[in-house]
């Protein structure tokens, strides 16, 4: 009688040992973690994918390990053109660059190939091994038969699937298999599960802690009819050979852990640690639901780029979701590299974190406030080049001038936090460009007497000197106070308000309104320095006339 594996795998000539030799044990320092992100190239990069990739990346970096990207393309129907670049480039924009596997410029590393469609032969070698050991068998069940079983199980209120009495082909002989193959029948390869329903498997999830589940009793498919592995089998073979130490993935896979642990066991492999990441949720009608690719624009990573959030802000925000200790770390170390944060899986939230755009805005304002003026300029101009050509042409007309705008109130212990995203830059810089400057309306100074405001503006225009130092400049404003009956110190005004028309704060507000069209701006001295004498005095006179 022929051997079953010769009937099913006549094409397989390599042995498991030969394959294993291609994947030597990694030489890494004690405690180093090998992690991976394993996307299917089915479309855009999802924020949840970015989140999972980031956690994998951080853990590998923190422990001096390896982070690799493996492309899981066993389902060719769902694949989209350019899907791999979309993901690798997308991640690289966020600083997540694979040590091994796929990068935007191709594959690298000694544990590949890192694309499942290129590993077909490898899976077949191990499927054959299982069959040789009686741990796998070909199953010729037709769609019709499977459907009948489903219906019967539903009627009997039994668990669905192929197990026990439903595993019809468990006892098939090689001759019977050969005959069916000769008849042109297609087949899948199923694991001959060694599980027992009454026994439970226990494992420690690095995020969720101890978990117990019944053993897997299903004769799970390992190779599909086209000879391609299922996710389960490919995961086990790949992560074993590639030396993954911790599998960090979405928690939709948690219920499959019993299948995976059983496969590791039946293959004689050591199982990796698992860490299942809760999805990012969205609040809706008082409830919570998963962010949806179809319904929520913010699910796509491209949304943030278009809206003008710097990648650094999105990363920072995701870190605050990943660890409740991150915000304290950031407060204490405003300029530290994220790599200095002691990221720990066990401190991650077990239930899905809520995605909160307001929070993202806050985090982003802080993040941008810590950037240098040059960086702000570069990033804002980059964004504008793609999404706001008018703004781009203004910003790039005189780079030094634009950088000067972003430098105002920046390099100090309490930088301003005006900008959350680059789409807000147009408004932020508007009064620095005549093309965007909106002439102030008298309304802005409604609480002041028009004659007083006019007098302040006239006096200031008369004494304004572009060459003043900041102290001289301030002193000059105070002399305007003295001449016109305003208090040069707020304190003096507060002590006897009836003796004054107002105080230095009022005078500066009137001037600020004329020069910028606003009552709240960054440091007026530097604004005026950049605008230059003509524009400062021109705007003041124009406004005074309109009052
Ligand atoms: N290709 C799987 C997915 O996209 C990967 C899961 C895993 O990381 O193992 O869900």
Q: Could you explain how this protein is built, in words?
A:
This protein is of the alpha/beta class and 547 residues long. It is 44% helix and 11% strand. It has 23 helices and 15 strands. A 4-stranded mixed sheet has the order 1-2-3-4. The protein has a 3-stranded antiparallel sheet with strand order 5-6-9. Strands 7-8 form a two-stranded antiparallel sheet. The radius of gyration is 33 Å and the shape is elongated. The protein binds glutamic acid. Residues 38-40, 72, 235, 247, 249-250, 253 line the site of glutamic acid (GLU).
Task: Provide a short characterization of the protein structure.
The longest helix has 17 residues, at 47-63. The chain has 23 helices and 15 strands. The model has no long low-confidence stretch (mean pLDDT 95).
Write the layout of secondary structure elements.
Blueprint: H1 4-8, H2 16-21, E1 34-37, H3 47-63, E2 66-69, H4 83-93, E3 100-103, E4 106-108, H5 120-132, E5 136-139, H6 143-155, H7 174-182, E6 188-191, E7 200-205, E8 209-214, E9 221-223, H8 231-241, E10 246-250, H9 257-267, E11 273-277, E12 281-284, E13 287-290, H10 302-307, H11 311-322, H12 326-332, H13 357-369, H14 373-387, H15 389-397, H16 399-407, H17 425-429, H18 450-463, H19 470-484, E14 486-487, H20 490-495, E15 502-503, H21 504-516, H22 524-531, H23 533-546
């Amino acid at each position: 009688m022929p051997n079953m594996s010769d009937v099913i795998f006549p094409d397989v000539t390599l042995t498991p040992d030969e394959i294993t030799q291609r994947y030597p044990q990694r030489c890494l320092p004690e405690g180093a973690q090998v992690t991976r992100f394993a996307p299917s190239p089915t479309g855009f990069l999802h924020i949840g994918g970015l989140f999972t990739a980031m956690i994998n990346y951080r853990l590998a970096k923190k422990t001096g390990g390896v982070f690799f990207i493996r492309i899981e393309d066993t389902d060719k129907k769902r694949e989209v053109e350019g899907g791999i670049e979309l993901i690798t480039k997308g991640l690289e924009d966020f600083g997540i660059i694979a040590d091994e596997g796929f990068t935007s410029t191709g594959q690298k590393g000694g544990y590949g190939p890192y694309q499942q469609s290129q590993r077909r032969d490898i899976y077949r070698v191990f499927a054959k091994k299982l069959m040789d050991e009686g741990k796998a068998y070909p199953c010729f069940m037709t769609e019709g038969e499977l459907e009948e079983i489903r219906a019967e199980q539903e009627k009997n209120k039994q668990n669905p699937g192929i197990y026990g009495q439903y595993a019809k082909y468990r006892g098939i002989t090689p001759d019977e298999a050969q005959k069916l193959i000769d008849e042109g029948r297609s087949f899948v390869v199923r694991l001959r599960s060694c599980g027992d329903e009454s026994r439970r498997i226990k494992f420690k999830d690095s995020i969720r802690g101890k978990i117990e589940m019944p053993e897997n009793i299903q004769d799970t498919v390992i190779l599909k009819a086209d000879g391609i592995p299922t996710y389960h089998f490919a995961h086990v073979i790949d992560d074993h050979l590639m030396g993954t130490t911790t599998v960090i993935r979405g928690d939709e896979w948690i219920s499959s852990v019993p299948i995976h642990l059983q496969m590791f066991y039946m293959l004689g492999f050591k199982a990796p640690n698992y860490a299942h990441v809760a999805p990012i949720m969205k609040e809706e009608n008082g409830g919570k639901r998963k962010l949806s690719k179809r319904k929520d624009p913010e699910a796509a990573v491209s949304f943030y780029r278009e809206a003008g959030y710097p990648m650094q802000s999105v990363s920072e925000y995701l870190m605050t979701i990943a660890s409740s200790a991150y915000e304290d770390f950031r407060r204490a170390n405003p300029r530290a590299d994220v790599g200095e944060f002691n990221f720990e899986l066990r401190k991650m939230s077990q239930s899905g974190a809520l995605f909160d755009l307001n929070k993202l805005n806050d985090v982003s304002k802080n993040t941008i406030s810590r950037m240098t003026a040059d960086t702000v300029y570069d990033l804002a101009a980059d964004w504008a080049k793609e999404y706001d050509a008018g703004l781009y042409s203004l910003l790039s007309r005189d780079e030094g001038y634009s950088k000067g705008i972003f430098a105002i109130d920046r390099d100090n212990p309490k930088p301003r936090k005006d900008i959350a995203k680059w789409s807000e830059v147009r408004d932020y810089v508007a009064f620095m460009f005549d093309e965007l400057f909106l002439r102030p309306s008298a309304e802005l100074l409604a609480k002041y007497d028009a004659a007083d405001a006019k007098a302040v503006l006239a006096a200031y225009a008369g004494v304004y000197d572009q060459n003043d130092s900041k102290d001289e400049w301030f002193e000059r404003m105070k002399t305007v106070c003295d001449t016109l009956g305003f208090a040069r110190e707020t304190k003096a005004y507060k002590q006897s308000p009836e003796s004054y028309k107002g105080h230095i704060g009022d005078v500066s507000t009137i001037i600020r309104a004329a020069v910028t069209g606003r009552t709240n701006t960054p440091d007026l001295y530097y604004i005026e320095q950049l605008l230059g004498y003509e524009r400062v005095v021109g705007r003041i006179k124009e406004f005074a006339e309109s009052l």
